[in-house]
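Query structure, 218 tokens:
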């Protein structure tokens, strides 16, 4: 597109529509956070079974690694299209797409973190007769908690962006409203939506940095 045409599209954001953007914003954040939550739950179960030092059986390890790989290598937007026959268009489509991809993304990071932990605490617990669950709670969890928090914050930050993009393909929220306004040439509203998206991403980034700082200080 030529520069003169681009400048013609530029508009002062119509900030008067911001009250109308509250519900789409909440929907976008809800899709991102609920999808990430389900992804975290699933990844916690898989990460333990997909780590060589904590898996219960070699076959279980292979199956878990395969599930994580499939969930991770297929992009969120592809999962969203694949889920249309099952859940249709809408928020559920976005939640499940984000949850599945987050399971693979977070699960891989967590599994690798568990494999890199110091084995001495586990050996000490095993010598004391600790059960498998006790070794997880007292030997594994304290060592991976900082990485766990960092990966979760990264996933949340990433998934908010994904939720906005998925909205442009029928999931709903800010992305869906952005497409509607763009198609009817209401560029003032489009720039207002972009302004809100910038504020959301900036706020999430600052909050994540603050939480990471608190975790690192400990």
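Result returned for the query:
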């Amino acid at each position: 597109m030529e520069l003169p045409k681009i400048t013609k599209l530029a508009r002062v954001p119509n900030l008067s529509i911001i009250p109308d953007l509250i519900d789409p914003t909440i929907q976008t954040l809800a899709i991102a956070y609920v999808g990430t939550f389900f992804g975290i739950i699933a990844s916690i179960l898989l990460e333990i079974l997909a780590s060589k030092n904590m898996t219960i059986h070699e076959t279980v390890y292979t199956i878990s690694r395969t599930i994580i790989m499939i969930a991770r290598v297929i992009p969120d937007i592809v999962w969203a299209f694949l889920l249309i026959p099952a859940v249709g268009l809408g928020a559920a489509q976005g939640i499940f797409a984000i949850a599945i991809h987050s399971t693979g993304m977070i699960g891989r990071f967590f599994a690798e973190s568990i494999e890199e932990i110091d084995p001495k605490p586990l050996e000490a617990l095993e010598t004391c007769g600790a059960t498998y669950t006790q070794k997880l709670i007292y030997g594994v969890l304290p060592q991976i908690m900082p990485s766990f928090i960092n990966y979760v914050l990264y996933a949340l930050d990433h998934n908010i962006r994904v939720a906005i993009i998925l909205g442009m393909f029928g999931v709903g929220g800010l992305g869906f409203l952005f497409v509607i306004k763009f198609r009817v040439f209401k560029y003032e509203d489009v720039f207002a939506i972009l302004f809100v998206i910038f504020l959301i991403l900036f706020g999430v980034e600052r909050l994540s940095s603050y939480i990471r700082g608190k975790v690192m200080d400990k």
